[in-house]
Specification:
Elements: H1 6-13, E1 15-18, H2 25-28, H3 34-39, H4 44-56, E2 60-67, E3 70-79, E4 88-95, H5 104-118, E5 123-129, H6 133-141, E6 145-155, E7 161-170
Parallel strand pairs: 4-5
Antiparallel strand pairs: 1-2, 2-3, 3-4, 5-7, 6-7
Length: 171
């Protein structure tokens, strides 16, 4: 068996497609991050409603990354809909832990930024949880800057607390 080098793995893994009526967002990605495991308890019905909303929205796009037919990452961009804020978009990315360090999250963010430009947006925004240093480093590397922090934004059942950190990038 031949192992792929880093570049080959990225090329093979990053098959990005617009999601169309697929019912796997949370159930398939439930191992991705603290956010999906600990912060979001979601039923199949709620999941279906979210996916349906994405599919019917002109302001939200979800990209998924598949490798050998397996969903390994996703990214979303949502354009704010109010007239005074429609130049802004909120992005989010999740990658299965076993696929970290392949450039997939970076590639997703770059693709989402390209869509943002097509939509005529001039600012991207994201939120992440304190303790996500890998995410922070990536976001800063591609030009996001920290603009705020909400202390104790999330309190888990075990009492663990996480701050919510807000970043923006002009495009």
């Amino acid at each position: 068996m031949r192992y792929l080098n880093r570049e080959e793995a990225i090329l093979q893994a990053v098959k990005i497609v617009k999601m169309r009526k697929k019912k796997f967002f949370f159930t398939t990605l439930d191992r991705i991050s603290i956010a999906s495991r600990r912060f979001y308890e979601i039923s199949a019905e709620e999941e279906e409603k979210i996916i349906k909303g994405f599919n019917e929205s002109d302001n939200t796009l979800m990209l998924v990354v598949e490798m050998d037919g397996r969903l390994i990452a996703n990214g979303t961009i949502t354009r704010l809909s109010k007239k005074k804020m429609c130049h802004r978009g909120n992005v989010a990315v999740s990658v299965l832990k076993e696929f970290w360090n392949l450039g997939i999250g970076k590639k997703l963010l770059i693709c989402l930024e390209d869509y943002a430009k097509e939509w005529g947006l001039s600012q991207l925004e994201l939120d992440y949880f304190s303790g996500n240093e890998r995410g922070r480093i990536l976001y800063e590397k591609i030009g996001f800057i920290k603009v705020g922090e909400t202390p104790n934004a999330f309190i888990l059942e075990d009492g663990t607390r996480y701050n919510n950190i807000k970043m923006v990038k002009g495009i």
